[in-house]
Specification:
Blueprint (H helix, E strand, L loop, with lengths): L1 H28 L3 H32 L13 H8 L14 H19 L9 H22 L17 H23 L1
Amino acid sequence: MWLLFIPLLILAGLILMGSALVGAVFGLLGPAWPLVLIAVGAWMFWREDRPRRQQQYGRAVATCAKPGPRASAKQSGPVASVKSEVKPAPPQNAKPELPIDVQVKVEQIRRKVDVLLGFADRFPPFSQDLFLVRQTASDYLPRTIDTFLGLPRDSVDKPLTAEGKTPLQELKTQLDLLDAKLDEIAQALQ
């Protein structure tokens, strides 16, 4: 029985020493301790936000950086014109980009999600529809797009399913499903 008393005594001593240490730190800081708490909170906020910003920056750089062939200004004549006309073949393992119509559809879905989330207070408590809207924004739409963009370029136009659908057709079907469900939720909200 006395063996249980020793860990409790050690725990009480640690708690007492910890509270004494906190008291000493606040005593030394005096009236400046709220500023320290604000600085620690700002550091925690900045630290939490950094991976998301780095991911967004990396994604923006990857989509915007598209180097193209450039003819040298010093060269002239037929060699320069041939070099400017010859474009290198895209690498076989390059990731596909979203076609324009798919980009428009994705942006339309994102805007619908933003509008519906703006009216989140109109949904009933524990609403399945609000859950679906949030999941569409955070999981369904990004995962659908990332899966398509993860495919090799040469497999985008090859049939994928037993029905003969290509990955692009399957992507459009998935986006249409998300769009239709958001329309249904918006109609139910009115």
